[in-house]
Amino acid sequence: MVSMLTVDNLTAGYDEADVVSNVSLNVIEGKITCLLGANGAGKTTLIRAILGLNNIRAGLVTFSDKDISSWATHDIASEGVTCVPEGRRVFGKMTVLENLQAGAFLERNASVVMQRLKQVYDFFPKLEERSDQLAGTMSGGEQAMLTIGRSLMSNPSLMIFDEPSLGLSPLFVKENFRIIKDINEKGMTVLLVEQNVRQTLEIAHFGYVLSQGKIVASGSVDSLKNNSELRAAYFGSA
Ligand SMILES: Nc1ncnc2c1ncn2[C@@H]1O[C@H](COP(=O)(O)OP(=O)(O)OP(=O)(O)O)[C@@H](O)[C@H]1O
Ligand SMILES: [Mg+2]
Predict the structure, then answer these.
(1) How many CB atoms are located within 10 Å of the residue 27 CB?
(2) From the DSSP assignment, how many helices (H) and strands (E) are in the chain?
(3) How far is CA 107 from the centre of its chain?
(4) Cys bridge to 29: 2, 8, 25, 154, which one at CB 3.0-4.6 A?
(5) What share of the chain is helix, strand, coil (3-state, %, to 5)?
(6) Which of 149, 202, 196 is nearest to 43 (CA)?
(7) What's the CA gap between 27 and 2, in Å, rounded?
(8) What is the pLDDT along the chain (238 residues), one digit of tens a residue?
(9) Is beta strand 32-36 parallel, antiparallel or unpaired with respect to 206-211?
């Protein structure tokens, strides 16, 4: 097992307070690694620190054997790390097609961009049907697809999803998880950050549980499912 992204004793926060402390985790190449935690546990803070959007107070972030701890966000992106952010941030006044093209802004070769567009449309035929529609007028579920499609347009080697199921109807949640599984089965390495424990553990291979800024459990998905404390806390059964 090769760790594509390694977080080593990372501490990050805002102002005086540390929000996540001494967090260590491995995101295994070709697998889905999940990070589970309740509201306010520090999940987004941790992702933002990995992406160079929050200062790292201590610790190391290594991607494909390179120390990226102090890299700028755009350099981390061009190295192959992309994030599907919390809360579906599409460019509302741009069309679906323009949103997708924006995801490939680092690529100058137009035929490469076209090729990627075709792949994204294969995943999401609806985005092709709606390519001229203003993104802001798409439904919440469609915007969720668009943010995933836009991230795929950068041809990443690691995709980080920040609570992709948040605020979606059960049908779209199911669809979203199916898409993430599908993307992974085509070879993508995934870090899936979620609160939806049940459905996340159905598709993930390895997992970490973050509670109040600290990792409190980790291991294979099977071991997490059998952890009685976690079952009591998250599944409502002991
Ligand atoms: N920009 C900020 N400035 C100050 N404090 C912040 C900032 N962003 C987040 N926090 C605080 O950091 C803590 C962790 O927030 P974070 O957004 O990382 O949690 P989360 O696990 O992503 O939660 P959620 O599931 O609700 O998205 C919270 O107490 C939050 O209030
Ligand atoms: Mg969050």
Answers:
(1) 25
(2) 10, 10
(3) 21
(4) 2
(5) 40, 30, 30
(6) 196
(7) 8
(8) 999 999 999 999 998 899 999 999 999 999 999 999 999 999 999 999 999 999 999 999 999 999 999 999 999 999 999 999 888 789 999 999 999 999 998 888 999 999 999 999 998 999 999 999 999 999 988 999 999 999 999 999 999 999 998 888 898 899 999 999 999 999 999 999 999 999 999 999 999 999 999 999 999 999 999 887 777 676 654 4
(9) parallel
| Contact predicate 91/98, CB 8 Å | yes
Ligand 1 site residues (CB inside 6 A) read 14, 19, 37, 39-45, 86, 163, 195
Residue type, 171: L
Distance, first Cα to last Cα, the chain: 32
Residue 219 gets the label, from left (phi > 0), alpha (psi -120 to 50) or beta, of: left
Residues 6+ apart with CB under 8 A from 205: 28, 31, 32, 33, 220, 221
**Rounded distance from Cα 40 to ligand 1 centre (Å):** 5
Amino acid (1-letter code) at residue 150: R
- Ligand nearest to the Cα of 41, by number: 1
Q: Whose CA is nearest to atom 31 of ligand 1?
A: 40
Whether pTM exceeds 0.90: yes
CATH no. of 3-80+156-235: 3.40.50.300
Give the 3-state DSSP-derived string for 39-108, with helices as H, strands as E and coil as C: CCCCHHHHHHHHCCCCCEEEEEEEECCEECCCCCHHHHHHCCEEEECCCCCCCCCCEHHHHHHHHCCCCC
